[in-house]
Design a protein that fits this description.
The complex is a heterotrimer. Chain A is built from 9 helices and 5 strands, in the order αααααβαβαβαββα. Chain A is of the alpha/beta class. A 5-stranded parallel β-sheet of chain A has the order 2-1-3-4-5, sandwiched between helices. In chain A, β1, α6 and β2 form a beta-alpha-beta unit. By secondary structure, chain C is an alpha/beta fold. Chain C is globular, with a radius of gyration of 17 Å. The chains are: A alpha/beta, B alpha+beta, C alpha/beta. Chains in contact: A-C, B-C. Chains B and C meet through α1, α12 and α15 of B and α2 and α3 of C.
Chain lengths: ~210, ~400, ~230
C-alpha cells in the first residue's frame, strides 16, 4: 500500500473536497504515483472499503454519496493526464463503447475503465450511466465498436444486462462483449450472461490489449 | 359443518336486502299456499258439512215392509268389527198424514234414539221453539208445518198411517234444518212412538251412521266392510248405501276443486323453487371470488358446497316461518273481516296444522333442492379461474 | 438448507383444440428460509408457475415436491389439506373475505383446518395483527379498510397456520411506494423471525433487488437465476 494513501483517506474522512482533490492531483504532478496507481490503489479502495461509523443508515448513504462526489471530481480532473499519456502510446485501432445499463447509476467504475482503455491504446467512448437498452443498440450501430464494455453494480441489473448482451449478440455477432462490476460476484451471475471477457479488475484491460495486438 | 354454516350466515347477512327479498319471495309463496289450501279445504269442508254433515253417511236398510228386530245386536257387532264409524243409530220411519181439524199434511214420522241420533243430526241445535221429545207420542215438527197446518206449540194432532190406524201426538217443539224438503216433511219422535203407530214391536227399519272425521271420503270402502258383516252373519241381506254413491255430482265437484287446489300449490311451489334457484345461482356468481379464496386457503370441496346448502336451508326455513305466519294472518283477517250479514265468515277456513306443516316442509325442501345446483357449482369452482378473472 | 419446494420438468399446456404451451420443462428448487423473487414480463408464465407451486393448478407434466411430498399422488382433499397447512398465499388483489373482520380473516385458515379455536390461537392471531400494525382496526370489516391495510391483513392471514412457504403474487402490485416499502420490510421481518420461505412474483424492482434470489421467467423458461453471494 502506498504510504500516501493514509493521508488521502484522512482528508476524505474529513469530507474536505478542495484538499482531497489538490492532494490527489499533486501526487500525479509530482509523479509520486502513476495514473494507474491512483485509480487502483487510491480511488477504488476509497470507495469499496468505505465503512460507515454512523448508526443511522440514512446518514451513511449521505456520507457515501459525498465521498463518491469527491472521487468523481478527482477522476474527471485526471483526464488531462490521460490525454498526455495517450499521446505517448501506440494506438491499437480498436473501438470500445463503455456504459452502464438502465437504472444503473454507479458509474465510477465505468469511468475508470474508460480511462484504462485509453491508456491501453483503445479508442474508447463512455456513453454514460443508466443507458436504455435501445440506446445501447443504437450506439453500437452508430459507433460500430469492436468491444462493448458493460459495468454492473446492482445485482438486479443483471436482468437487463442479459437482455442487452443477448440483443448485441443477436444483432451484432462480431462485437465482443466485456462485462464487469460488483454484480457479477453473485452466484451464477456471470455464467448466465453472454460475454467474451469478464474483467475482475480494471487492469485486466491490459490483458485484453495484449490479446488483440 | 360449523364453518360452512357460519360462512353461510355471514354471506346472507352481508347482502341483507337481497336476503330479505328472497325470504319475502318464499314467504309469499308459502303464505299463498297456506291461504289457498285453507280456503279450499274450508270450502270443501263446509260444503260437505252442509250436504252430508247432518245426515247419515252409511245407511243400512231392509226392504220396505220388513224390519230388524236384533238391531242392537247388529250395532254392537258392527261397532266391534268395523273401524272408521263414529256412531250408529237405529231409526224407524212411518209415512202418513197429520190431521189438525180440517187441515191435513203428509208427514214422514221418524223415530230415533236421541243419545246417538243427536251425534248425527244435532237436533238440539236445530230446535227453534220448545224442546226435544222425551216420552211416547211427543213429536217435534219442521217449521214448515207451522204454516201448512196452522199449529202452535203443545197442539194435539192426529197421525194417520194408512191401513194401520191413527195415533194422537202432541207437538213439543219445532226444528229448522235449513232444508225446505225436511222442514215441510219431517216429524221427529222417539223410536217407541213410531213403533206404536205402526203396531210393531221393538224393531227398526234402518241403521244410520256417521263416519269418523277424516275418513269421510272412504265411505265406499267402509260401506263395503259393513256389507261383509251381514254375509258373514248369514243375516237376510240388508242394503248398505253410502253418501258418496248417493252424491256423485257433489263428489266430482269436490274432486275438481281438490285438483285445482293441488295445481295452484304445485305452480306456487315451482315458482318458489325457480326463484330460489336463480337467486342462489346469482349468489354463487357473486361469491365465487370468496369461494376461490377459501379454496386457496384449503377449504374442502364438500364444505364449499355445504355453504350454499346451508344458505338454501336458512332461506327456506325463514321463508317458511314468515310464510306460515303471513298465511295464517291472511286467513285470520279473511275470516274476521269478510263476513256475511249474520256475522259468520263468507267462507269458513279450515286451518289444518298438518297441511301447514307440509307446506312449510315443501318450501324448505324446495329451497334445499334449489341450492343443490349452486352447491355443486361451488364445489367444482376452480381457484385458478377465480384468480385469472380477478 | 434443505429444499422446501421442488419443481421437476414442469410443463403446462392450456387448451385442447388450440394448445398453448405456457411452461417448458421448468426445474426449480427453493431452499428453506430463502427469500426469492420471480420476475418476468406479462404472459411469461410466471403466474402459472406460482399457481402450480401453490397446487392451485396442476401441471400438464412434471413433479412438484412440497415439503417432501410429491403432489402428483395426492387426492384433491389431501391437496387442500396440504395447502391449508404448508402454504400461505398473498395475492395482488388482497382477496380478503369482505364479509368478515380483519381478525376473522386472519383466523380463517385455522378454522378451515377444523381445529378448535383456543385462547392461544386467538392470541396468536392478535399477535400477527400486531406485527402487521393493525391492532386498532382488527374488528373492522375487511371491506372498510384501505388497500395497504387489506394487504397487511392478507399477510397476517397467510401466516396464521405457520406455513413453511408463502407464495405471493404481486403483493405490492397496487400499493403506493411507501406502502410497498412497509410491506417489503414486513415480509423480510417474517422471513427472519419465522424462517418462512418466500416466493414472490413482482414487477417491482425495489422488492426484487432486495430478494436473496432472482429468477427470471421468459417465454415459459427460466431465463436467469441468480442468488446473492452473501445470502
Amino acid at each position: 500500500m502506498n504510504s500516501n494513501y493514509e493521508g488521502f483517506i484522512k482528508l476524505l474522512d474529513l469530507e474536505d473536497k478542495d484538499k482531497s482533490v489538490n492532494y490527489a492531483l499533486e501526487l500525479l504532478k509530482s509523479k509520486k504515483v502513476t495514473l494507474e496507481e491512483l485509480y487502483l490503489d487510491f480511488l477504488a479502495p476509497a470507495l469499496t472499503t468505505f465503512v460507515c461509523q454512523e448508526k443511522e443508515k440514512e446518514i451513511c448513504i449521505w456520507k457515501e454519496h459525498t465521498r463518491t462526489s469527491i472521487i468523481r471530481t478527482i477522476l474527471e480532473c485526471t483526464y488531462p493526464f490521460v490525454i498526455e499519456r495517450r499521446n505517448e502510446i501506440k494506438k491499437l485501432h480498436k473501438k470500445v463503447v463503455i456504459l452502464t445499463p438502465s437504472e444503473e447509476y454507479h458509474e465510477i467504475g465505468a469511468i475508470i475503465v474508460n480511462h484504462f482503455f485509453m491508456l491501453a491504446g483503445f479508442e474508447s467512448q463512455y456513453i454514460g450511466a443508466n443507458t436504455p437498452k435501445n440506446d445501447i443498440l443504437m450506439a453500437v450501430k452508430a459507433y460500430q465498436p469492436d468491444f462493448v464494455a458493460i459495468s454492473v453494480t446492482n445485482y438486479y441489473n443483471i436482468v437487463i444486462t442479459k437482455q442487452i448482451t443477448d440483443g448485441i449478440k443477436k444483432n451484432y455477432p462480431n462485437v465482443k462483449i466485456i462485462v464487469g462490476g460488483q454484480a457479477f460476484l453473485q452466484h451464477g451471475a456471470i455464467d448466465q450472461i453472454s460475454h467474451d471477457y469478464y474483467m475482475q479488475k480494471a487492469s485486466d484491460v491490459f490483458m485484453i490489449a495484449k490479446e488483440v495486438k | 359443518m360449523k364453518l360452512a354454516f357460519s360462512i353461510a350466515v355471514r354471506f346472507l347477512k352481508s347482502g341483507k336486502i337481497q336476503t330479505w327479498f328472497i325470504i319475502l319471495g318464499i314467504a309469499i309463496g308459502v303464505s299463498v299456499q297456506v291461504f289457498i289450501g285453507s280456503l279450499i279445504s274450508g270450502l270443501q269442508k263446509s260444503l260437505v258439512d252442509k250436504t252430508i254433515g247432518n245426515s247419515s253417511q252409511i245407511t243400512i236398510t231392509v226392504p220396505s215392509g220388513e224390519y230388524m228386530d236384533d238391531y242392537s245386536q247388529i250395532i254392537s257387532n258392527l261397532s266391534s268389527n268395523v273401524e272408521g264409524i263414529e256412531v250408529y243409530t237405529p231409526t224407524i220411519t212411518a209415512r202418513g198424514t197429520l190431521l189438525e181439524g180440517t187441515d191435513t199434511s203428509p208427514v214422514v214420522m221418524r223415530g230415533f234414539t236421541f243419545e246417538t241420533a243427536n251425534q248425527i243430526y244435532n237436533f238440539e241445535e236445530k230446535i227453534t221453539e220448545g224442546r226435544m221429545p222425551n216420552s211416547i207420542n211427543e213429536i217435534v215438527l219442521g217449521i214448515g208445518f207451522k204454516e201448512s197446518l196452522n199449529i202452535e206449540l203443545n197442539d194435539q194432532l192426529t197421525f194417520d198411517v194408512p191401513t194401520i190406524g191413527t195415533t194422537n201426538v202432541i207437538v213439543v217443539g219445532f226444528f229448522d234444518f235449513k232444508v225446505q224438503a225436511i222442514n215441510t216433511a219431517w216429524a221427529i219422535t222417539t223410536l217407541n212412538t213410531v213403533q206404536t203407530a205402526l203396531g210393531v214391536g221393538d224393531v227398526v227399519d234402518s241403521i244410520e251412521s256417521q263416519i269418523e272425521d277424516g275418513l269421510i271420503f272412504d265411505a265406499v270402502e267402509i260401506a263395503a266392510l259393513v256389507q261383509t258383516q251381514f254375509v258373514n252373519n248369514g243375516e237376510g241381506s240388508p242394503e248398505v248405501s253410502n253418501w258418496i254413491d248417493n252424491n256423485e255430482e257433489l263428489l266430482s265437484g269436490l274432486q275438481g276443486q281438490s285438483i285445482s287446489s293441488i295445481m295452484i300449490q304445485v305452480f306456487v311451489m315451482i315458482s318458489v323453487v325457480l326463484a330460489i334457484a336463480s337467486v342462489l345461482a346469482i349468489i354463487v356468481m357473486q361469491k365465487s371470488r370468496q369461494i376461490g379464496i377459501l379454496k386457496a386457503m384449503g377449504i374442502q370441496n364438500l364444505d364449499a358446497s355445504l355453504i350454499f346448502l346451508f344458505e338454501g336451508l336458512i332461506l327456506g326455513l325463514l321463508g317458511a316461518i314468515f310464510g306460515v305466519a303471513l298465511g295464517l294472518g291472511l286467513s285470520y283477517s279473511f275470516t274476521t273481516f269478510a263476513l256475511k250479514a249474520d256475522g259468520t265468515p263468507v267462507v269458513p277456513l279450515f286451518i289444518d296444522p298438518g297441511f301447514i306443516a307440509l307446506s312449510a316442509a315443501i318450501a324448505v325442501t324446495a329451497a334445499l333442492g334449489a341450492s343443490l345446483i349452486p352447491a355443486r357449482k361451488s364445489s367444482k369452482l376452480s381457484v385458478i379461474e377465480v384468480i385469472r378473472n380477478a | 438448507m434443505p429444499n422446501v419446494m421442488e419443481l421437476k420438468e414442469i410443463t403446462k399446456i392450456y387448451g385442447t383444440k388450440i394448445q398453448t404451451q405456457v411452461l417448458f420443462g421448468i426445474n426449480l428448487a427453493f431452499e428453506e428460509g430463502s427469500f426469492n423473487s420471480i420476475i418476468g414480463q406479462s404472459g411469461s408464465g410466471k403466474s402459472t408457475l406460482l399457481n402450480i407451486l401453490g397446487s392451485l393448478d396442476r401441471p400438464t407434466a412434471g413433479d412438484i415436491i412440497i415439503n417432501g411430498k410429491n403432489t402428483k399422488s395426492l387426492s384433491s382433499k389431501e391437496l387442500s389439506d396440504l395447502r391449508n397447512e404448508s402454504i400461505g398465499f398473498i395475492f395482488q388483489f388482497h382477496y380478503l373475505l369482505p364479509e368478515f373482520t380483519a381478525l376473522e380473516n386472519v383466523l380463517m385458515p385455522y378454522r378451515i383446518s377444523k381445529k378448535p379455536i383456543t385462547k392461544e390461537v386467538l392470541d396468536y392471531a392478535n399477535e400477527l395483527l400486531d406485527i402487521v400494525g393493525l391492532t386498532k382496526v382488527k374488528n373492522n370489516l375487511a371491506i372498510n379498510m384501505s388497500g395497504g391495510q387489506q394487504q397487511r391483513v392478507a399477510i397476517a392471514r397467510s401466516l396464521m397456520n405457520n406455513p413453511k412457504i408463502i407464495l405471493a403474487d404481486e403483493p405490492t402490485g397496487n400499493l403506493d411506494s411507501d406502502s410497498t416499502e412497509q410491506v417489503y420490510e414486513l415480509l423480510r421481518k417474517i422471513n427472519h423471525q419465522f424462517g418462512t420461505t418466500f416466493i414472490i412474483i413482482t414487477h417491482d424492482r425495489h422488492i426484487a433487488e432486495k430478494a436473496d434470489r432472482i429468477v427470471e421467467i421468459k417465454d415459459g423458461r427460466i431465463n436467469l437465476d441468480i442468488t446473492k453471494a452473501n445470502a
